[in-house]
Amino acid sequence: MDTLLTTAFMTAFIAGTIAATLPLLLAGLGEQMSEKAGVLNLGLEGMMLVGAFAGFAVALESGSFTLGFLAGIAGGMAVAALMVLACVVLPLNQIVIGIGITLGMQGATSLAHHVMYSESYPRLPRQPEFAVPLLSEIPVLGASLFTQNPVVWLSFALVAVMAWLYRATNIGLNLSAAGEKPAALDLAGVGITLTRSAAVLTTGALAGLAGAYMANIGAGLFVPFMTNGAGFMAIVLAMLARGRPGWVLGGALLVGVATSLTTALQVAGLNIPTDLVQMLPFIMIMIVLTIFGRRAGLPAALGHPYLRGAR
Amino acid sequence: MRARSRDALRALAPIILALLLGGVILAALGRDPILFYTRVLNRTVFNASGLQEVAVLMAPLLLIAASLIVCFRAGLWNLGTDGQFLLAAVFVSAYGPALVVALPYWVAICALMLLAAGVAAAWAALPALLRAWHGVNEIISTLMMSFLAFSLSAFLVKTYFGDPENTVPQTLVLPVEDRLPRIAESLVHVGVVFAVLAVLVVHLVMTRTAFGLRLRIVGHNPRAAEHVGLHVPRLTLAVFGISAALAGLGGAIEILGVRGVVRADWHPGFGLLVVPLVFLARFHGVAVIGFVAFFAVLTIGGESAARRADLPNHFLLVMMAMILGILALVDHLAARAKERG
Question: Do A93 and B29 touch (CB under 8 A)?
Fold first, then answer.
């Protein structure tokens, strides 16, 4: 067991966990909001990819990570605007449009990558980090746990903000109403189109940020298809969380730990087949579903466009 | 008859518009769109071996389409066909080489097909039971089982089912002479015929039999179905079983007909690509053959045309996405026109 507690092992393990957790957390929180408002957003993966590409391209050109993150947010929102147009303004099928957006953006980003970077394969330099004073000086774990990119701190703070938003504000109530009984919200004089559009655009912003984090901090470069199913994982986490941001965090950490356990155990010299370790998060999710899954608790109007006057 | 030609127009309009838009994008990238499309056709439709490759690629896609038609018509979203397909393929390629030696050829093939269907159905059992008993959303559970299947398949191929003689992690190879017989010296194997028949049978069962009617009632309105005395949980289990089994057969056909081996890193991800085609065909079994053929032409022809135009072949994904978007729009406009009479 000694090998498991060395600094090298813990540093690799914590860094890997955060790198795997953060995109899932951000995208999952985003998806949760649009699901709450009644829009099943299967285009999440596409939004993350565009965020990753835009974030990487701008960070590379400008040399500024902040601008890169902003570009990632903008890219995700631009794709989300397509979703808004098709599935909120127009009542088109959310599953078809969602899959379409994911496929299309996979193609578009790999095309753009081919045109711009396929010969040079540029990389970004290491990014600035922010060390929490005092805590980061704790021996052994302090440095790896409390020295992170500011986006990491913002994301964890976002969990609390979202929880407060849903529990204690009118905005949260409106979002739930748009997902549970849009007609009631409409009667109360709040626009469904406005509420759902805002929710989907927020999803796009968070997914774009998640993608930009993956490209700029996690990998330091953009590779076509680099999200590799993370968007779909995030959708599942959001569905399982039943509207609670804290659960998205828990789920994302669970997956993050299992993902980085693979690499960290190899660093520690233990040889457990990586394929089996990769199954852990999914097995855990299936167990959670089996035990707690009775009536999944998804919003009643999830996936249904709202048409005033329609029955 | 007029209604039918209007349906055909509604189905073809998205494709034509998307091809036009794709042409605009190609032109914007400085490529000649007409040359691109000509190359796609020359590589496939106007080329005997290209045409055969298209047919061969269609076989697994058609079985997945049949799988999706069954569950979508019954209102169940089995998005786990990729995992069911892959796991079945892994078992078939693990036991295939031994079985074809031990048993008479066609007995072995039938046993392998049954094995594939059984493995895939077993993999869908947990989501099916959760859905039938507790109403657990099947989109989550089938996607999760799919991810699980990718890892489990890789693990099995690297360990128990692996070929110890080979440095690359892969199963034993089914010898070429033991693969499904080919039709008239062409590349096309009998699995293609089987796949086409499977889609047609599924279509007839869903539209022309009492069983199919029951499933469609469940799909339209589960509460009404319970009201007329249908046992919804039992039908849910049946739908998942049939749907997964068909996806598993797709995996078996791909191994027995073409590949003969599974490498640890192989997962083709056909399922998610076929979902839009099934929507495009509006869950219609005959129409879906046309769309799958179109997709296969675009995949095989597009790959070579994209390479020659120095584009990544993922360009085709953009085209698929545009087809889907326009399809959904045309659908909506047509429905609104109908409402207004």
Answer: no
